[in-house]
């Protein structure tokens, strides 16, 4: 076989897969969002943006991501430090930490619903302990911030472990000698973390942040389980326009908005957390 | 002033004993080399002095202060690592400045020290680079500069030249010796390379199996090995050994000839001679030449004496072929004797 064609042949299956299942649907969505009766239009975007729910939806999604992702990074760093320090119990702890990853996001949402709903665990406990006289309606539309907090808790519980897994593997790549050098040259535990672990973990942090932020923009099932449509988010609205309002064009416009903020966030992380030339291991 | 005192330091890893009660004193500003084969405990001892490993037993004193319970940063030491450990995410400048920044020195002082040590190590033109853009030799220079910038009482070096190629190693060795002599620090240097040890050290501690077998000046270690191991480990080619038995008249029988030996000592000794301390003359040890290796200045003759391997470094004018019979006479003042049971030197 010609050695020049071999690389392309090897790349072909993945390329075909990507074209058929990613590029083609993407082009279809883009076409839907920008077209009407075969011509170009911005009408669907106008419909989307002029709807009273659009901006609350947009900001709910962005703020949720802006709160959840940094918290997850901090927690995951702490968890990864713990796991990295362990010896014999390392794997056990790692498995326990990653159990929530095995659940679908809807299941995770329902678990937290079981805690927060009116007949849920939290209310039973509060009533049982005599702290409150009758169950409180936590997740009502009057208490938007409680739904917000519940979603944040559920997301933290559900998806922090994926960040941790990435960071744990990144920490494993940092040679021990750098810590020893830092120790000899005067760095205590905190300084070692700041001056050695964090900068050398930068590529892993970058990967984790990109993955988690994109996923956070796509938050849906947890929000639906805990808040229904009381706390609208972008994917929820996409779903709504597609299936409840039967307007595929506006739904496609929503999808493109999610894509746009995902790309924007990715570019920011790529830029801010880039590694200078020559500064790699 | 930083004299280092090591008192009864022992280290075990589980059931394996890496160090057996080491006692060693290293004088202020002395260049001490810990020399031994891999697994002899030399790196473990260095790491215990550094504080990267804690001893199972014993005490470490630096400059009159007991330090074995202190973290590395409170011991007044700096270290050069085998794999350099130059931080990849920092520039050369920030690498050298690392320890100074940890000490919170004012920027002006940091700058002066970084520039001075960089100049000393000839890397002043690399200060803005990252370690990924440096060669192994340059990284090594950064690692040394980082240690020197601390102006420490003690510099610890863990096989610092072993990752460099042969030519660079030779160059760095000479440079290190000059730089460290001027820096007025006490230096402990770990290596398995005896030539490096001989050329750098004020004193060499030869280690074997977790013991210090001999701690003495390079020439002393070479000329008067305290134990058979030292003679066989140091010198290339190493010492020759032959069994010796005491005669009635206080002389010793060695491979068919009689030699003057120590008046004390057991009946069973080992005769030892360095290959270069042999001359060709009548009445010597009967040797059958096996391999002839002309090395230019000398010719290395590997022969057999009494069925035992025996090497001689002879004048390269000598005409000798494999199979030739030679008579090798040892220089009397260079002959050494070792007790066959304890392996210790007997005088």
UniProtKB/TrEMBL annotation, chain A:
Record keyword Transport present: yes
Cited Gene3D superfamilies: MetI-like (1.10.3720.10)
Keywords from the UniProt entry: Membrane, Transmembrane, Transmembrane helix, Transport
One GO biological process term: transmembrane transport
Ranges where the ABC transmembrane type-1 domain occurs: 58-269
InterPro entries tied to this protein: MetI-like, MetI-like_sf, Sugar_ABC_transporter
Localisation per UniProt entry: Cell membrane
Membrane topology, record value: Multi-pass membrane protein
Organism domain of life: Bacteria
Membrane-spanning residues: 59-80, 92-115, 144-168, 209-231, 251-273
Family of the protein in this entry: Belongs to the binding-protein-dependent transport system permease family.
Name of the molecule in the record: ABC transporter permease
Organism listed in the record: Devosia insulae DS-56
TrEMBL record, chain B:
GO biological process: carbohydrate transport
One GO location term (cellular component): ATP-binding cassette (ABC) transporter complex, substrate-binding subunit-containing
One MF term in the entry's GO annotations: ABC-type transporter activity
Places the protein is found: Cell inner membrane
UniProt KW keywords: ATP-binding, Nucleotide-binding, Transport
Membrane topology: Peripheral membrane protein
Ranges of residues in domain ABC transporter: 4-234
Entry-linked InterPro entries: AAA+_ATPase, ABC_transporter-like_ATP-bd, ABC_transporter-like_CS, ABC_transpr_MalK-like, ABC_transpr_MalK/UgpC-like, Mo/tungstate-bd_C_term_dom, NA-bd_OB-fold, P-loop_NTPase
UniProt record similarity statement: Belongs to the ABC transporter superfamily.
Name of the featured protein: Sugar ABC transporter ATP-binding protein
Organism per entry: Devosia insulae DS-56
């Amino acid at each position: 076989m010609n050695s020049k064609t071999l690389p392309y042949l090897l790349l072909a299956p993945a390329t075909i897969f990507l074209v058929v299942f990613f590029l083609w649907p993407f082009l279809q969505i883009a076409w839907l969002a920008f077209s009407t009766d075969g011509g170009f239009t911005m009408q669907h975007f106008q419909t989307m943006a002029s709807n009273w729910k659009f901006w609350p939806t947009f900001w709910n999604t962005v703020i949720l991501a802006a709160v959840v992702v940094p918290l997850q990074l901090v927690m995951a760093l702490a968890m990864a430090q713990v796991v990295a320090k362990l010896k014999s119990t390392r794997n056990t702890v790692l498995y326990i930490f990653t159990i929530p990853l095995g659940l679908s996001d809807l299941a995770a949402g329902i678990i937290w619903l079981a805690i927060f709903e009116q007949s849920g665990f939290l209310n039973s406990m509060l009533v049982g302990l005599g702290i409150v006289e009758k169950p409180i309606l936590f997740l009502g539309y009057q208490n938007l911030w409680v739904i917000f907090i519940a979603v944040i808790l559920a997301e933290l519980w559900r998806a922090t472990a994926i960040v941790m897994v990435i960071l744990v593997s990144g920490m494993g790549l940092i040679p021990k000698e750098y810590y020893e050098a830092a120790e000899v040259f005067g760095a205590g535990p905190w300084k070692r973390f700041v001056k050695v672990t964090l900068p050398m973990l930068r590529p892993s942090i970058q990967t984790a942040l990109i993955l988690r932020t994109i996923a956070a923009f796509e938050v849906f099932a947890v929000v639906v389980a805990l808040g229904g449509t009381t706390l609208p988010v972008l994917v929820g609205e996409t779903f709504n326009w597609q299936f409840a309002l039967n307007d595929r064009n506006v739904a496609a416009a929503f999808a493109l908005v999610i894509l746009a903020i995902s790309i924007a966030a990715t570019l920011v992380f790529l830029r801010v957390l880039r590694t200078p030339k020559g500064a790699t291991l | 002033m930083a004299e280092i005192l090591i008192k009864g330091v022992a280290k075990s890893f589980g059931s394996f004993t890496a160090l057996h009660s080491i006692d060693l004193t290293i004088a202020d500003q002395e260049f001490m080399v810990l020399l031994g084969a891999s697994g002899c405990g030399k790196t473990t001892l260095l790491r215990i002095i550094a504080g990267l490993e804690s001893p199972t037993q014993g005490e470490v004193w630096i400059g009159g202060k007991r330090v074995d319970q202190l973290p590395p940063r409170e011991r007044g030491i700096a270290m050069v690592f085998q794999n350099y450990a130059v931080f990849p995410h920092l520039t050369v400048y920030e690498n050298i400045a690392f320890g100074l920044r940890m000490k919170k020195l004012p920027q002006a002082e940091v700058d002066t020290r970084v520039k001075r040590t960089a100049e000393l190590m000839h890397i002043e033109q690399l200060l803005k680079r990252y370690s990924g853009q440096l060669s192994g030799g340059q990284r090594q220079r950064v690692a040394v500069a980082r240690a020197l910038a601390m102006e420490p009482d003690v510099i610890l070096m863990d096989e610092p030249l072993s990752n460099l190629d042969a030519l660079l190693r030779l160059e760095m060795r000479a440079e290190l010796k000059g730089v460290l002599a001027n820096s007025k620090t006490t230096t402990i240097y770990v290596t398995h390379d005896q030539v490096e040890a001989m050329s750098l050290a004020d004193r060499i501690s030869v280690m074997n199996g977790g013991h210090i077998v001999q701690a003495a000046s390079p020439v002393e270690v070479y000329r008067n090995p305290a134990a058979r191991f030292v003679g066989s480990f140091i010198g290339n080619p190493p010492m020759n050994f032959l069994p010796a038995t005491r005669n009635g008249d206080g002389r010793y029988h060695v491979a068919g000839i009689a030699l003057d030996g120590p008046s004390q000592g057991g009946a069973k000794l080992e005769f030892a001679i360095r290959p270069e301390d042999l001359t060709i003359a009548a009445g010597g040890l009967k040797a059958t030449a096996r391999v002839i290796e002309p090395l230019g200045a000398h010719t290395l003759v590997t022969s057999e004496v009494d069925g035992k391997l025996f090497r001689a470094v002879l004048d390269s004018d000598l005409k000798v072929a494999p199979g030739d019979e030679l008579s090798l006479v040892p220089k009397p003042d260079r002959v050494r004797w070792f007790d066959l049971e304890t392996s210790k030197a007997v005088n």
